[in-house]
Write a structure and sequence with these properties.
Shape: globular
Order of helices and strands: HHH
Number of strands: 0
Largest sheet: none
Structural class: mainly alpha
Length: about 70
């Protein structure tokens, strides 16, 4: 799984798709956690968090920002 996520991450970065990049980093973090590689899990999840902060901002999303919000 990590091989495919790594390939997908490279593609997401090449085409400048931050949402896909974020999904890959999150998924890689989960896989690393599951196999007990906590240092790499933390690194991947922190990278995803930093990307979220760059794209969404420090305040994060609000309920009103979601398309399904009333």
């Amino acid at each position: 799984a990590l091989t495919f996520f790594d390939q997908a991450l490279a593609i997401a970065r090449a085409v400048k798709n931050p949402q896909s990049e974020n999904e890959c980093l999150n998924n890689m973090g989960i896989v690393y956690q599951e196999i007990g590689d906590y240092d790499r899990a933390l690194a991947a999840l922190n990278a995803a968090l930093e990307l979220d902060r760059l794209v969404v901002g420090e305040g994060g999303l609000q309920l009103d920002d979601l398309p399904c919000a009333p």
